[in-house]
């Protein structure tokens, strides 16, 4: 039987994102999410999480969106004091890994201060897999004894024989779920599959701050589609889980 985790990134980004994620869970097949503790909707997300404890919630570590929790960084922030953009990390870059460690540790500690128990760690824009940042990511995972998203190069950390992580955007999500239902392509070769997604409603903050907006609505519609829900939840070959079940 295939164990299936469907994880929504960006919990805490904004109220509209939070409500979209919660509806994808309560009315759909979403089982898991990861919280951005540095974003404006973080406390609202925590309130929703505590009211809906069937949703697994992990930590979405951030280096490329919003502002850091700790002041005094030199290499991971722009002149405005915001985190540097993804484009900085897509080129040759140099950052102080100790700054990354201190900031990410602060983000995890803030998560814990909310009274939530994290299910796992992943990162915004997969930034944990860029350069040598994976060293910090793995160090914190070991320190807090938490599972991680399997998106690091195999020669460093390979659990791919049992676990596959994959992300889809907008309409791609529908094809991915259909392939899972039919156990097609490479999905059948793994014990556990995580499908990453970004369901949301839209508000002004999301419109002004993100380049990925309206496809989130499409993902929400797919995750709450009646036919898809019946096929997934009624399947004898698929078991919906969250990271807390690993």
Give the key terms.
alpha/beta; TIM Barrel; 9 helices; 7 strands; magnesium; Carbohydrate deacetylase
| Average pLDDT over all residues | 92
Q: Outline, from the CA principal axes?
A: globular
Provide the domain count.
1
CATH topology: TIM Barrel
Low-confidence stretches: none
Please give the largest β-sheet. Answer: 7 strands, parallel
Strand content: 15-25%
> CATH class, anyone?
Alpha Beta
| Fraction of helical residues | 25-40%
CATH architecture field: Alpha-Beta Barrel
Number of helices: 9
Radius of gyration: 17 Å
Structural class based on helices, strands and sheet pairing:
alpha/beta
Termini separation comes to: 14 Å
**Going by CATH, what is the homologous superfamily?**
Glycoside hydrolase/deacetylase
Order of helices and strands: EHEHEHHEHEHEHHHE
The tally of beta strands, per DSSP, is 7
Report a brief summary of the structure.
Probably catalyzes the deacetylation of acetylated carbohydrates an important step in the degradation of oligosaccharides. The protein is of the alpha/beta class and 246 residues long.
Spell out the blueprint of helices and strands.
Layout: E1 2-11, H1 15-26, E2 32-35, H2 42-51, E3 56-61, H3 86-89, H4 97-113, E4 121-123, H5 134-144, E5 163-167, H6 172-181, E6 192-197, H7 204-209, H8 215-223, H9 226-233, E7 238-240
Parallel strand pairs: 1-2, 1-6, 1-7, 2-3, 3-4, 5-6
